[in-house]
Amino acid sequence: xxxxxxxxxxxxxxYSDAFCTEPFEAGWASEARWFIRILDASGSGAGIxxxxxxSPDGLVWCDDEERPDPVxxxxxAAEPVMVSFKQREFGNWLRxxxxxxxxxxxxxxxxxxxxxx
Length: 117
Known about the structure:
With 117 residues, the protein is mainly beta. The chain is built from no helices and 8 strands. The model has no long low-confidence stretch (mean pLDDT 92).
């Protein structure tokens, strides 16, 4: 039986500037899937750009070369918005580097990391 684990890395936190999620040790997993949901946003054109990062030790980080461009999520919909993407062959530690876009953006987000062996 394959192992599976889901972690909530950001739970209804509100940001007005760039941030990184908490690092998560995932060396046992062969697959990872990120879920990002914007619950609320303010500011003209508010949205986020998320770049998955990898690390051998959870201290020093680099962008995952498998995804050269960040995942873009605009908060312009009337309902909460969610996007998902996969990550493979990542080594041991994972996190997301998130930048906010728009004019004086403020976003409330949920970020999940689902791991599978």
